[in-house]
Amino acid sequence: MTLITIDHVSRLFNDPRDRKGNTTVKALDDISLSVGRNEFLCLLGPSGCGKSTLLNMIAGFDKPSSGTVSVGGQVVTAPGSDRGFVFQQPTLMPWLTVWENVAFHLTMRGMDKRESREKAQRFIDMVRLTGFENHFPSELSGGMNQRVGIARALLMNPEVILMDEPFGALDEQTKMEMHAELVRIWRESQSTIVFVTHGIDESLALGTHVAVMSARPGRIRELLAIDLPRPRDATSPQFNDYKRHILQMLRPEAAVPV
Ligand SMILES: Nc1ncnc2c1ncn2[C@@H]1O[C@H](COP(=O)(O)OP(=O)(O)OP(=O)(O)O)[C@@H](O)[C@H]1O
């Protein structure tokens, strides 16, 4: 069943180099895409192809210049609690503990401390931070802080989790561990994920689908359904067949001057 529909979406920005605002930059050009419930879609493409712009429009942080984005049949006009967002940096409050960060949205809504603490625990356990509830972000590793950000997004029980290169700053080993954790969390929470990355391996490690985007103006070159068993083996011939296919799609892009 379709949960997210991106229907002929284009996005023009004023060219920041033109102070008078007479020229525009086309970041996205006529994107149409559907994401089914419980799918894990990776948006993959070179830097500047508009991945974050598209994700921000699903989140309701930005609006299309033309076309529409709908989630659950409703046209997106603003952020909403049906969509959780995990940023590249975890954006935690350094003066709050792990559980206070996870429960942030609940306490903001006026829920009492005991109840919000209880609600937060389930998600702290889900991201395997049990025992770290009273630690501060500065006492945790980058990967652990990112888990706090994921738990905070999950707590609102969103239909969709939107993730903008959340593991970009992590080392390879931690990134691989986080991939396994995220797949487990995705299955356990039965959520739908849209995940932005420029890593081919990352997209193939995670996605049920990979939307390969072209360099600016961003278009969908191909939507691939990834038919690989989990846990995914990055050394398997099938994994490398997908990788070769994507590389071939992206290769001519490298030659296009930006
Ligand atoms: N607010 C803005 N004003 C002007 N141009 C913008 C704005 N936001 C994005 N752009 C331009 O739109 C294009 C797409 O940007 P976007 O950040 O969505 O790309 P991306 O694929 O996420 O890149 P990266 O992987 O480097 O984060 C870029 O050329 C960028 O310069």
UniProtKB/TrEMBL annotation:
<dbReference type="InterPro" id="IPR050166">
    <property type="entry name" value="ABC_transporter_ATP-bind"/>
</dbReference>
<dbReference type="InterPro" id="IPR027417">
    <property type="entry name" value="P-loop_NTPase"/>
</dbReference>
<dbReference type="InterPro" id="IPR003439">
    <property type="entry name" value="ABC_transporter-like_ATP-bd"/>
</dbReference>
<keyword id="KW-1003">Cell membrane</keyword>
<keyword id="KW-0378">Hydrolase</keyword>
<protein>
    <submittedName>
        <fullName>Aliphatic sulfonates import ATP-binding protein SsuB</fullName>
        <ecNumber>3.6.3.-</ecNumber>
    </submittedName>
</protein>
<keyword id="KW-0472">Membrane</keyword>
<comment type="similarity">
    <text>Belongs to the ABC transporter superfamily.</text>
</comment>
<dbReference type="GO" id="GO:0005524">
    <property type="term" value="F:ATP binding"/>
</dbReference>
<feature type="domain" description="ABC transporter">
    <location>
        <begin position="4"/>
        <end position="240"/>
    </location>
</feature>
<keyword id="KW-0813">Transport</keyword>
<keyword id="KW-0067">ATP-binding</keyword>
<dbReference type="GO" id="GO:0016887">
    <property type="term" value="F:ATP hydrolysis activity"/>
</dbReference>
<dbReference type="InterPro" id="IPR003593">
    <property type="entry name" value="AAA+_ATPase"/>
</dbReference>
<keyword id="KW-0547">Nucleotide-binding</keyword>
<dbReference type="Pfam" id="PF00005">
    <property type="entry name" value="ABC_tran"/>
</dbReference>
